[in-house]
Amino acid sequence: MGKEKGGLDNLRHRIDAIDDDILSLLNERAKIVIEVGKTKEGDRQEFYVPSREMAIYQRLTAKNPGPFPSEAIRRVFREIISASLALEHPMKVAFLGPQATFTHAAALQQFGLSAQLVAQKSIPAVFDEVLRGRCHYGVVPVENSTEGVVSHTLDMFMDSDLQINAEVLLEISHDLLSLSGDLDRVRKVVSHPQALAQCRQWLEDNLPDIPLVDVGSTALAAQMVAEDDSAAAIASEMAASLYGLRVAKKKIEDNPNNYTRFLVIGTKRPARSGQDKTSIMFSVKDEPGILYRMLEPFSTRKINLSKIESRPLKKKAWEYIFFLDIEGHLEDDRVKEAVEDLRQYCQFLKVLGSYPRIR
Q1: Domain that holds residue 162
Q2: Are strands 246-249 and 175-178 parallel, antiparallel or unpaired?
Q3: Of 111, 262, 282, 323, catalytic
Q4: Quick check: 88 pLDDT over 80?
């Protein structure tokens, strides 16, 4: 027994020595980061560069020999980079709140725990905080793989000059939460309309006669349920922890392959990373063959369109705004040429951003 304990103590001492080395290297890295911040400030460069972060994650993941899991590398270095950015320049980020929404989780995934995350009550409020310079960046949802686009976000780009700086893809898993954790005591279910829609079949099969109540966010639903023992909320595991709720049933979403895409918005356009996406919005003149001519500039240059979406133009009946996601950066010659060719058919055209794409 003593021999076994001696062996364990030896292993722990080796771990302690490695941890000491990691700590020393983190501080050495931090000193260099401070110098980087001074250089950026002198050259008036952006402190937050999404393409640089992505390159770090990809390089380290590719070099990882194991057994440390590759999927954990991004999480570990996300916090190292977050703390480093805080040393360079304190980062303030607005997000669609309250705390424990999926947008909050997306903001944490993108900016880490060292950023100052500021909850907002609406998508327009997120845009406004960034536009007025009270926050450096904002995070808003734009589409879900099951329920489609978030129309409020697309509508905001029509009148805003803010640029998309990055995209975040978050796997969405819904839990049914209540004070008791007892499914039999549930008399109503509260959540955001999209969360209710994503769990529609489960609710019909398991709580067929229980009324469903729409609220502004999954986190707000959790807040309400924390004060009502007869109600249950569809929300995240983070919400359960934050608001003192128990899980009545985990993972009740109908489609297990359920993702939401979020956008990081800012005032400037990021530089080219080599693996970029460009988003544009435009309206076209109503004339025969216009949809074909709209796509032709991209087809002839073999540019992939990863998304096409349309929204009614509120100022005129039966006219539409189109949103395109194009593979490539606006600084790429063929992308720039294609957009300029498209412009001749448009009543108006706006570039929403060129930014690193998630693969």
Answers
A1: 93-172+259-265
A2: antiparallel
A3: 262
A4: no
